[in-house]
Amino acid sequence: MLNEFSQAIELLLQLNVDVWHIIWVSLEVSISALFLGTLLGLPLGGFVATQHFWGRRLVIILLNSLMSIPTVIVGVLVYLLLTRNGPLGNLNWLFSIKGMILAQTILTTPIIAALSRQIIADGWNIHGETLKALGLGVISRIKWILWDCRFSLSIAILAGFGRAISEVGAVMIVGGNIAHSTRTMTTAISLETSKGDLPLALALGFVLLAIVLIVNVLIYFLKSNTEAKYG
């Protein structure tokens, strides 16, 4: 056991090309999906939180439900979209990083939208009447609320990143876990463990744990700062 741990640390210290390529692919996919998920999720959450329309409760229930959707289901659906005979088959995104980003964007968007909706709804209850009295349009109101709740919304964004970086099912199906191309930390850990290459699996596991720990530390401090600011 100690031998595997020492070999895993050695792989990281030696800057093993294969290990760091896998880490880079994971970060590229997750950060890209987080960026797109934030662009889609924050305005969606803001709109649902501040506007009343027919079917609003259904949208809220749907967003909350999608937060916990099994990732393999998303993987299968995206696979069907991107397969040669699928609606998006001409894009040639199947078994590519772009396809993996699409799958993870679908996973992160509902989380960011659902969490931001609740955060913005709380802010809207405090400032909504004032913003209406000022005669601001819908877009201006949403922008103002997003800025006012920016610290709390950072927690929602980091939660989306945590979902993306630790995801395995969808990227395995859509990306194919191809060496030197679409292999991520989670898919590589699964593969290398089944092959018995524990040092490589442990090395990637250490990095993944470190990233998740950093994200949770950031969430903790952002939450603490938010609570200190708003009491």
Structure description:
By secondary structure, this protein is mostly helical. It has a single domain, classed as MetI-like (MetI-like fold), CATH 1.10.3720. It is built from ten helices and no strands. The chain has helices at 2-13, 17-50, 56-66, 71-82, 97-133, 138-148, 150-165, 169-175, 185-195, 198-230. The relative contact order is 0.16.
User: N-to-C terminal Cα separation, in Å?
Assistant: 48 Å
Order of helices and strands: HHHHHHHHHH
Kindly name the structural category: mainly alpha
Q: How is the biggest beta sheet arranged?
A: none
Helix content: over 70%
Corresponding CATH superfamily: MetI-like
- Overall spatial form: globular
Number of strands: 0
Which spans have pLDDT < 50 for at least 5 consecutive residues? none
CA radius of gyration is 20 Å
Assembly state here?
A: single chain
Any idea of the CATH topology?
MetI-like fold
Q: Architecture in CATH? A: Orthogonal Bundle
Strand content: under 5%
What's the CATH C level?
Answer: Mainly Alpha
Any idea how many domains?
Answer: 1
User: How many H/I helices?
Assistant: 10
Arithmetic mean pLDDT: 87
Record the SSE blueprint.
Blueprint: H1 2-13, H2 17-50, H3 56-66, H4 71-82, H5 97-133, H6 138-148, H7 150-165, H8 169-175, H9 185-195, H10 198-230
Helix pairs in contact: 1-10, 2-5, 2-6, 2-7, 3-5, 4-5, 4-8, 5-6, 5-7, 5-8, 7-10, 9-10
